[in-house]
Amino acid sequence: AQSVTQLGSHVSVSEGALVLLRCNYSSSVPPYLFWYVQYPNQGLQLLLKYTTGATLVKGINGFEAEFKKSETSFHLTKPSAHMSDAAEYFCAVSADNTNAGKSTFGDGTTLTVKP
Amino acid sequence: DGGITQSPKYLFRKEGQNVTLSCEQNLNHDAMYWYRQDPGQGLRLIYYSQIVNDFQKGDIAEGYSVSREKKESFPLTVTSAQKNPTAFYLCASSNSGRRVFFGPGTRLTVL
Fold first, then answer.
1. Contact yes or no for B29/B36 (Cβ under 8 A)
2. B76 Cα to chain A: minimum distance (Å)
3. pLDDT tens digit sequence for A76-110
């Protein structure tokens, strides 16, 4: 079984500031980890994913995440926030790399970017 | 353009009525999924199908039914047995299970 905890349901940053969205997971097997972004009344879009190999994963829109097994974490970062980054972000974990649709999702973090 | 379409975007239902949400994909994906999203919560899996004419229950299948007669289509019926159906419903499909593509969603409101 797996679970995901996203620390902080709301995060607010100023435009140009560092974005850090926290995700901790629990998995009984090596995890496959995902970050998704959702804009209001839309579906989710994949930002990045970790399967195996390099622990620092780069995604779209300047986001990246680092898989830290010892800390069971997969935090999402972006060096400089842009107004267009305001959205809801979901971390997800899957135990099966061939069935990503069966992932367990966190409750989401809403990112607000202040001008 | 390839993608996933869901219709309608907004749907209103009276209590006690069944309603069917449409999901169509032209990505030639074998796997399709239905999720429910409630405010402040992540996605919860209702049903999924990895191949035509076969589908499996997800975590919250009670009160829902699906069919998969064609590769492109995976409609979801919300039955009167679903006690709290007001939610945002997302359909998705997957290529070999490694990446999931989401539709734009249907917002269902029970009056």
1. no
2. 16
3. 999 999 999 999 999 999 988 778 888 999 999 99
